[in-house]
Amino acid sequence: MASLSLQTLFVILQSLLLHPNPLLAYSLKDCTINYVDNPLADVFVDCSTCYLVTVPDDIPRDVTSVKFNSNQIKEIKKEDFGKLSKLRFLDLEFNSISHVDDESFIHLAALTTLNMYRNELTNLTANLFQGLSMLTELDLGFNYIHFIHTSAFQFLTSLQTLFLENNRLQQITDIQPILQLPHLQVLSISYNQFSTFETKDLLFNVSSGLKILNVSQNEIKTFSITPLVFPHLEMVNLSACGQAGGLKWDIPDKTLPTNLTELIISNTLITFEEIRKVLQNLDSLIYLGLNHMEDVINKGLLATVCKIPTLRKLDLSYNSVNSFSELENCSQLSDLDLSITHTSELPKDLLRSLKRLRSLKLNINLLRKVPEDIRSLSTLEILNLSDNLISDLGCEDFINTTSLTELYLNTNRIIKLNSCVFENFTDLKVLDISDNLLQTIGDAFKLGPKMLMFLNLSDNVVLLFEQGDFQGLKSLKHLDVSNNIVRLTRKVFNGLINLESLSISVLSLLYYNIKQLQQLKSLNIYFSVDINFRHFNPYYFDASYVLRSLKVFTVICTGNPFDFYLPILIQTLQSMRHLEEFTAENIYVSAPGPDTFYFNNELKNLTIRKTDLSHLNPKLFQPVPNLQVLDLSNCKLKSLDFLAQPKLSALRYLKLTDNELTVINETVFQSLPALTYLDLDNNPFTCDCSNAGFIQWVKSNNQTQVVNAYQYTCFFPMAAQGRKLMDFDVQSCWTDVGLLCFISSTCLVLLTLLSSFIYHFLRWQLAYGFYLFLAFIYDSRKKKKGAPHQYDAFVSYNVHDEDWVYREMLPVLEGEQGWRLCLHHRDFQPGKPIMENITDAIYGSRKTICVISRRYLQSEWCSREIQMASFRLFDEQKDVLILLFLEDIPTQQLSPYYRMRKLVKRRTYLSWSQAGQHTGVFWQNVHRALETGDAPTDTDLLTGPAGC
């Protein structure tokens, strides 16, 4: 549509003027530009899981991060990234890339991270990484790499981290080009095919700055390194290494281990003697991981471990706790991990001697109560007891752990909290008791912990929170009591003077409950209201009337919406003068009134979901001129006309998924000059010309990104269901209906005027032309048939002259001279069309005699007869026409009868009025004219009356 195209062009031009950086957001065929709050921020493009087989060519040039993971790309071509000079992060993992053209990355001078994990590369060529001088992290894990060219890494002068796990490297010489990298600090070559790892096998000496080396999951029988090659090595991972005879640790120079601070030996095939020898020589070890090592631990390995004077962190997860009896000698430990040890009870006094322990993990076990040894750990700061079977907390459980700052008791079976449980926590800041079976919290928080800042009581079955339940938590900032079927008594939140965030699922919330929460900035309320629920406290929302500092307000109903309390919700919103974000899901039955946000002028983020907004009043958004994010998903919207208003000029993010939009009027976006992100997914689009303007706008505008637009499918008409909306051919819709109507009406007017003009001035000429055409057709047929003439002459006369014809002409021409004449009243075939009779008579006769009078000239049929005869005269060039004038007619009177006047000027004619008394001479001239043969007429025809 031409008019729509002009409107679309206007939108584009306006967008370009208002946004000097047009590449920040627009619709891509297969990818999505991630929404960011700052329009000047970096551009992040997500092309993951898009079934791509090649790198798209519509990636914006300003992009800094691209994700191509989980696609079907098989090859990287030299030109694929030629225009992405600002790219810093490139993710190509989980594809089928088997070939990369040399110099494919030569234009990516700013790239710092390249991820090619899970592909099908087999070798690294000399110029593969040319141009990547700024690359700091490279992941080539899970490929089939078995060959690395000696010059493959020469361009990676800034590389710090390299992952080559799950490949087919076999010997240390394969990685020699890597060890020469000047800034390499982390190297992972796990899951390869190394049988030995000995630096003496290197072709020439190198000195690497490597700090972390991961050679796990290799069947290495000998591990031998020298300080010359790895002078700065700090961490080694030998997990799942070794062969049947056991791994041999061969480090002859004892000066090297002084740099080693971390060692992971998990499920490693190594003899007890060998590992003990290794650990005895590691005098600088700080962290040791011994996962899945029960065999050597049971032989007393911990006795050796605990003698390492520098050891601070010990990970014994995935082992059996029964083998940990020697832990009592590890008094120097600060961090101990005993998670996933399948223990139901710690041996008594196992941890009593760990006087320096700061962090203890006992999560994911079978503990039914808090281990007694916890009481002796006065230095403990972090304790994780989550995912156990603890059902009861006693007053003595944490009696001496006064230094705890974080306590995790989530996902247990705790039924109640006693008042004495947490009274000794003077420094506790984080407490998580979510996902338990709590029915009451008792007096647990009436006196403290006074320093607690985060409390999670969600996903329990608490039925009642009473006054003063939280009065001891003066420092609390975040409280989550959601997913509890809770009733609140009066002033239940008294004392929470510093609370900033509250999440709650309740059935009643009184005004006085939270009137003390003057610092509250985020309030999340979750409901589960049954359709029969009617005992709703009228002061439910009135409780938040005093929340003048609130910035985030979320109300979500998981049951049926309760629109009958809308006046209370509106009154609640009136008090929130600083509200910036409001979410209402399944709350309204119908669209909220236009005055809903009258007092929320600072609102920036508005979400209304699962609500019937089909009759939305556009005035709803007039009080919120700063609105930047609008989410109206699943709201039965059928039109976007409500967006066409200047009050939404600041809107940048618009989500309208799961609605009933069939036709999109792209002109509404003219009033949204800041819009950069538009999501219309899962709407029943119509694929016809009604959406042609929107399709053109999506493809041409370079301001607004229509997310996944090229994946939108057709719902109407039925024949187009399942097709892509963007594949609809809009070329057929470019005809402007208005212009077509204008042209049609103009043509109709002109045709009417022309027809009137022709009828008034040229009707006889047109009629003459028409009959000449019919005569031409008839003449052509006669020539083909070659039929003989039936009559000597056809007499053309007017009915008023019929008496003269019968009285004067017939007696002489038929009676005396014997000619065969054709007269229309006598010889025309009955029932036959008159024009066909006339044509047959003229062409069936050798001559045509026209008996001309003033009445003859005024007769329509006589005019047609002479026109037909004159056509035969000039077509056949034969002397076939005889003109008989019964009366004198001046030449000027013949002017209206243009054809007759022309004939009179060119042919000899006979005048009855001039014959006088000499009628015999007149009829003799007629006889002579009838006797004239069919020879062509002379070119110089005589004019004037024939002599009588």
Note the main attributes of this structure.
single chain; 948 residues; alpha/beta; Leucine-rich repeat, LRR (right-handed beta-alpha superhelix); Rossmann fold; 30-stranded mixed sheet; six-stranded parallel sheet; 45 strands; disordered C terminus
Would you mind describing this structure in some detail?
Keywords: Glycoprotein, Immunity, Inflammatory response, Innate immunity, Leucine-rich repeat, Membrane, Receptor, Repeat, Signal, Transmembrane, Transmembrane helix. It is a single-pass type I membrane protein. Pfam families: LRR_6, LRR_8, TIR. It contains 17 helices and 45 strands. Among the domains are: 138 residues, Leucine-rich repeat, LRR (right-handed beta-alpha superhelix) (Alpha-Beta Horseshoe), CATH 3.80.10; 184 residues, 3-Layer(aba) Sandwich (Rossmann fold). 19% of the residues lie in helices and 17% in strands. It is elongated. By secondary structure, it is of the alpha/beta class. The strands form 6 sheets. It has a 30-stranded mixed beta sheet that branches. It has a 6-stranded parallel beta sheet with strand order 41-40-42-43-44-45, with helices on both faces.
Distance between the termini: 77 Å
Strand content: 15-25%
What is the top-level CATH class of the domain at 762-945? Alpha Beta
- CATH-assigned homologous superfamily of the domain at 762-945: Toll/interleukin-1 receptor homology (TIR) domain
Note the quaternary state here: single chain
Helix content range of the residues, please? Answer: 10-25%
Largest sheet entry: 30 strands, mixed
Classify the fold: give the CATH topology of the domain at 762-945: Rossmann fold
Which word captures the global form? elongated
- Gross CATH architecture of the domain at 762-945: 3-Layer(aba) Sandwich
Class by alpha and beta content: alpha/beta
**Count of beta strands:** 45
Radius of gyration: 51 Å
Give the overall average pLDDT.
84
Number of helices: 17
Membrane topology: Single-pass type I membrane protein
Transmembrane segments: 733-755, 761-778
Signal peptide: 1-25
Main location: membrane
